[in-house]
Amino acid sequence: MVIAKHEFLNIAHRGASGYCPENTMSAFNRAGELGINWMECDVRLTEDNQVVVIHDQTVDRTTDGSGAVSGFKLQDLQKLDAGAWFSPEFEGEQIPTLVQLLDGLGSQCQLVVEIKDGIYFPRIIELTVSQILERGLESRVQISAFSWEVLVGVKELCPQIKTQALIAYGEEGTRGATVDGGEIPIYSDPQTLLRDASSYGVDVVCPPAAWIERSLVSILHQGGFLVRAWGVKDDASAEMLRLIEAGADGMTTNFPDRLELIFASFQNRRG
User: Quick check: is 55 catalytic?
Assistant: First the structure.
């Protein structure tokens, strides 16, 4: 199968998180200012069933508070300072809701929403999809997860929303750490990965950057899947170029402006 020509997926990881506190409106706005059309965020569920934009299971690392996100009501969660940990200039930054982020998307922007805790709290799948549909954004928002089951749930609610499967790749027979309520299967055989991606009906397969090589990309492309890397290191310009040369269709990065320059240089060399 031939992959149709598409825009290279230069995705601002948790917004332009190299410059601003991750998963805050400042980070997403900065990505827009840099001219980046693709952004990525993580979502979790509060005690009062509000979908909020935060990566960790707890607020400890990225706010001045402590405790599980699921233990906060939205009103209390948004009293926390989600910016000062990064830099004093961001003091007072709030944890945004998914609704706030969706409503603030620029007209050219596309978003990848990584659903966290979808196994523990399956209602987050329904709420996330409904908030996307209510705004008519099903063609501009894609959903990712480390769980095949979560992505199947998304497709059952809205087949038009594209899904991105985050996977691990490594030694045969091993299993990944428990993430978001389930074990991540670790693949060693590209054909097995291709079989599962086809079985679960995803659109994009996302292996870790360190394991992506041309042969893996070729097999997944033949199966009709785009290949997007995750886990790109901040200082890894050489890794970004290696992934591009291997045929990867995109990647998440904390410094999307750097990736933009590397990809443009690669394109120019190709003529």
Answer: yes
